[in-house]
Design brief:
It is a single chain. By secondary structure, the chain is α+β, with helices and mostly antiparallel strands. It is built from nine helices and 22 strands. Strands 1, 2, 3, 5, 6 and 7 form a six-stranded antiparallel β-sheet that branches. A six-stranded mixed β-sheet has the order 8-9-10-4-11-12, with helices on both faces. A five-stranded antiparallel β-sheet has the order 15-14-13-16-22, with no helix packed on it. Strand 18 (291-301) and strand 19 form a beta hairpin. The two termini are 38 Å apart.
Length: 357
Amino acid sequence: MALEVRFSKRLASFSLEPEFSCDTEVLAILGPSGAGKSMTLRCIAGLERPDEGFIRLNERVLFDSGARINVPAGHRGVGLLFQNYALFPHLTVAENVAFGVKQGSEREARVRKQIADVHLDGCEHRLPRELSGGEQQRTALARALAPEPEALLLDEPLSALDTYLRSRIEQQLIVTLAQFQRPALYVTHNIEEAYRIATKLLVLSKGKVAANGARDAIFREPPSLDVALLTGLKNFSRAREKGEGLVEALDWNCVLQINGTRPRSTAYVGIRAHYIRFAFEGDEAAAACNTFPCWLVRVSETPFHATLYLRLHSASQPGGDHHLQAEITREQWSIFRTRPQPWLAILPREALLVLPE
């Protein structure tokens, strides 16, 4: 089974031009707000009409501008889970789940199975207003799956949930999607959520495909600064080549040793916040390459982690700028905070990202 998408649709500030395919895996669509993620799903589902191009599902044409084919939404065989769930307020849980299922002898059994699969037994006769946020989300998921769609589209399905419910429902979604074994698109702007749920990643930026491929490869070697930022990069500097295996980080005022080949035109160098390591005077690690004295500008703490905002080479004035963000555990922070500054920040060369213009 395969979903093939290539179309264009003119929006207010840019042209949406997604081009990708999806087989039996989960493809996460990542991008900032307004990048065209939700509109892409709406076009595939038949709720919006592209201007040009085609959409095919299992060799069945859903849309083709040249052939003037535009299959109505109800006949596409696509399940869509909306961001706000879009449950029918006057229908019970069972009636909502049954809405898209054709009449027949198996209809009631299929509805019961979907309700049981999402752990809503006992809620069949409740109205949406009588459900918690998590129960509403699971009802919407059951409704999307009940007609046994050929593809499943999920539009930020966890965004309205609190932290506890988000974690529980995410684990259920991972199991459900693994069992689905048909094309599934998962829209999100949460990079960690995308990483946990999908093995393949499509990055949209202003309507264009900025990256498309294996999740790990895109994280490890993003093709551009935009993609690096969208996949969570916090630290980058303008850069220029300084010789074989060297780049100068202009904004950090340092020369860095790098691994591997450089892009044809080096424009930026970056490092993800969790890859920065530390040493102190006298440590063996202090002799590592790409080691620089650093001073703490400020710290942002959560119950389990701390983000350190650091300035290289010299102490910052109160309220001054920082060069780098480093993410460490609270246990590490409890040790660091007692050590005199400057500390030594290590930017491992194998962790550096060298990016083109």
